[in-house]
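During the second half of the funding period, the structural biology subgroup turned its attention to how the target accommodates small molecules. The most pressing case was heme C, which had performed well in the primary screen but for which no bound structure existed. We therefore specified the complex as follows and requested a full 3D prediction, including the ligand pose.
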Amino acid sequence: MNLHAVLSLALALAAQAVQAEAVSGYRFLDESTRAMQDDDFENPGLVAVDRGSELFHELRDSEEYSCSSCHGQDRVKLDVRQIARYPVYDPNLGGLVTLQKRINYCWETSLDRFPLTPGHADLIALETYVRNRARGEKVDVRTDGEMAALLAKGEALYHARFGQLDLACQHCHVQHQGQMLRGQKLSQGQANGFPEYRLGQGRITSFQQRLTECFVSFRAEPFEAGSEEYDLLKLYVTARGNGLPIETPAVRF
Ligand code: HEC
Ligand code: HEC
């Protein structure tokens, strides 16, 4: 190998290493938005945390349990390391289980209530409350065993082109990260802050809702709410951010 070849190989490897390093959307924010996220009195996402707390402790008429009966007052019995592992693989619950699905499962089977739809405000509030318990914990999704094949499917979706503009997730969030698009700086599209508060929308937003917005923004047909594709993308995107701190509720534009 001549010097030129060695140099270009080294450059290619360095580029890969840069690409591989996960960077939170937080690092792409301006200073005032970061400060808002960091301050519990200013962070508007804390409203959803409070609402989640109400639901978590609420004992409804004639019901025997609330979430807190099993998971402790102020969610103390929920293990933060376990929360950071979601989505998980659980054959008893049908395979790939997102945190939202796990909560809905408890809602339905432990509390004997009708399951909530994926976009239901109460479900997102509970998810925000539960994940907020693990704020600061590092994302730690398993990538081996049963997960490997599911991750490969999620990765394929991440690279698939959709819609009139024929774009894939990776075009914006890998190739063009750091560049401006319609006044917004493109981040890596990481999942560590979800559910997150969106200043532009004025509401707490789930991962699925954010993806639906991405699809609409490049004029593609979004997947159906609650579909397997969304879960596979959630798995791939979350695992891509392994090691990033959980920021729920993050503040984003
Ligand atoms: C009757 C008891 C009971 C009630 C009530 C209950 N859960 Fe659960 N929950 C469980 C059990 C059992 C598990 C499985 C724990 C395990 O696998 O280690 C679980 C697991 C979870 C997990 C995953 C934690 C982990 O370690 O993987 C979350 C999050 C959760 N529940 C949230 C809720 C929420 C929110 C509510 C109220 C809507 C609720 N649960 C109501 C018993 C309950
Ligand atoms: C046309 C460009 C474009 C495409 C393609 C696109 N997005 Fe986005 N996405 C954006 C913009 C703009 C934002 C808001 C700024 C940012 O955080 O990057 C965003 C934000 C996000 C976020 C939130 C990041 C955070 O820190 O809050 C996630 C997650 C995300 N996108 C995932 C995806 C996934 C998965 C796909 C493929 C289904 C996708 N995006 C396709 C433009 C795009």
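Two results from this model are relevant to the next phase. Confidence is low (pLDDT under 50) at residues 11-18. The chain has eleven helices and seven strands.
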